[in-house]
Amino acid sequence: MPKAPVVETPVTESPNISNVIEFPKTETESYVPSKVNGYVKFGHYNDIKTIAKSGQFYPIFITGLSGNGKTMMIEQVHAEIKKELFRVNITIETDEDDMIGHYALVDGRTVWQDGPVTMAMERGATLLLDEVDLASNKIMCLQPVLEGNPLLIKKEGRIVRPAPGFTVMATANTKGKGSEDGRFIGTNILNEAFLERFPVTVEQEYPSVSVEKKIVIKLMETLGCVDEEYAGKLVDWADLIRKTFYDGGVDEIIATRRLVHIVHAFAIFKDRMKAIAMCVARFDDQTKEVFMDLYSKLDEKVSVEENSEPEKSEWEAGKTEEIPW
Fold first, then answer.
1. For residue 199, is the peptide bond before it cis, meaning its omega torsion is within 30 degrees of 0?
2. Rg of the chain's alpha carbons, rounded to an integer?
3. Which of 42, 61, 112, 210 has the CB geometry, 3.0–4.6 Å to 201, for a possible disulfide?
C-alpha cells in the first residue's frame, strides 16, 4: 500500500495570516491605561518609568506585600508615558492558550485568536504578568519571550517577533519561593530558570508616613470628604500596626489599599469609627478588636463602644409594634 504524501507546514511571519482575529491597531492608545486622578508617585515609580521609556527589552520582577501599589504603579507609569500595557492576571490555571493564543469558533469558522503575550510583542507594548507567583509550571512557555527572542506559535506554524519597545514586567507577593508563613496561600515555587530570566528584582515597600498621608488626603479630595486630622491619624495608626507586625506582635497588617477602603467608607457614612470598623471586619475578632482599640487611643473623638453594636431597627427598639415581615 503506497504511503500518504508528506505535506510540510510552512512557517510564516506574523502578522500576514488571513485566519487570525485582528485586534484594533489604528487606535494608538486603545491599550494605554487610564490615569487615576490624585495618584501619588512613590517607591520605584521613577525606575519603572525609566525602563518603560527606554524602549529596551529589560524584564523586571516587582515583589512586595499585598496592597502596596505594585500593579497601580506600573499602570500609572504607562498612563503617563502613553505606552500600551497588556495585563495578564496569572492563576494556577493560566496556560499557553490563555497567554499565547488559541483557536476560537467565530461565525461557524475556526479561527486563531492571539493572546495578550502575542499582542504585546507585535505592538511593542509592555506585558504585565500580575501575581506571577500563582503560576504553575505552564508559565515556562514564556521562556523565549523572557529572553527577547521570537516566539514560535506551534499550532499556527507562525513566528512572532518582538517589536521595538516590547518588555515584560511581573508582580508578586513573594520572590517566587513560596509563602513560608502561609499569608499568601496559593503561591508557588517558581522554576529557577524562569526567575533567572528577570535581570532585576525590586522590592516595593509601603509608602512613608508623609507620602501615605498625601495619598489619603488626595483621595479624600476626590471623594469630597476632606478631614486632614482623620487622615493623619489613620496613617499613624497604620504605621504603628506595621511596625508591630514587623516585630512579630500581630499577625495582620493594614495595607495602603485598606486605608483606601476606609476613606471610601468614610465618604459614604461620614463616621470615623464606623468606617474603620466595617473595613477591619475582614480580620478575626481578636485582631479586629485590637486594631479598633488602638485607633481609639490615637483619636480622642471616637470610642470603640459606639460602633461595637449594630444599629437596632425601630421594631427592635420598641418604637413600633409592626413586625417587619
1. no
2. 25
3. 61
Please list the ranges in the chain whose pLDDT falls under 50: 7, 15-18, 20-24, 26-29
* Pairwise CA distance, residues 252 & 283, whole Å: 8
Residues 10-45 as b/e (b if ≥16 CB within 10 A, e otherwise) read eeeebeeeeebeeeeeeeeeebbbeeeeebbbbbbb
Q: Which three cell numbers stand for residue 33?
A: 491605561
* β strands within 141-262, DSSP E: 151-153, 158-160, 167-172, 200-203
Contact 306, 271 (CB under 8 A): no
For the stretch 124-138, pLDDT in tens is: 999 999 999 999 999
As a whole number of angstroms, the distance between CA 174 and CA 1 comes to: 60
Strand runs (DSSP E) across the chain, as ranges? 12-13, 20-21, 60-63, 85-89, 101-106, 109-114, 126-130, 151-153, 158-160, 167-172, 200-203
C-alpha cell of residue 270? 461620614
pLDDT of residue 180: 76
The answer to whether the CB of 287 falls within 8 A of the CB of 252 is yes
Cell 496556560 locates to 95
Instruction: List CB contacts of 46: < 8 A, sequence separation 6 or more.
Output: none
232: left (phi over 0), alpha (psi -120 to 50) or beta: alpha
The whole-angstrom separation of Cα 226 and Cα 218 is 8
First to last CA, the chain: 82
pLDDT tens-digit profile of 133-189? 999 999 999 999 999 999 999 999 999 999 999 999 999 999 999 987 778 888 999
Architecture of domain 12-203: 3-Layer(aba) Sandwich (3.40)
Boundaries of every domain in the chain: 12-203, 209-307
